[in-house]
Amino acid sequence: DAALLRRWVDARVDILARATRRRDAVDALRRRLHAAWTGREVEIGWVHGDFWLGNVMVDPATGVAAGIIDWEWAARDELPAQDLLYACVHSRMLASGGELGDIVAEMLQRPVWEEAELALHRAAHAPVETAIDPDVLLLVWLRQVAANLVQAPGLAHNPLWVLRNVASVLRALPELPAAAK
Question: Is residue 78 classed as helix, strand or coil in its secondary structure?
């Protein structure tokens, strides 16, 4: 609905806009996400918001997950798929040493799940499409970037951070197929 779109897209795009002078690209992102999510029926629920392996406590004796920590970015009325998708993005970040935006831009260009990511989805009994939905990926990226900019506003003035976390994704937008309806 309109309230969710304002929170998921508009409020976060407004925060993102502080980190770039590319108003055309920011406006294109806003239009694309509105087109993708307006009228789209989805299930919503609580998300952790920073779900990655470093926030999962594991029992050393059994190797079984014993708890999840760092709930600072948790929120209700979000796409539940965000947590698993962010865990996959973060794993790629750790494996490559890349930044969030660099990894997201690569995933937008080649929207294919890796085998370990498919296994994670299966283990979580989560539905997964064969290709990564670019509009879900953009929403996850936008949520993370906006949260980082709120937590550390100075990042908006760090050219390297902006290049690797914002500009890389904005550059990938024009090459994407039209937003899903």
Answer: strand
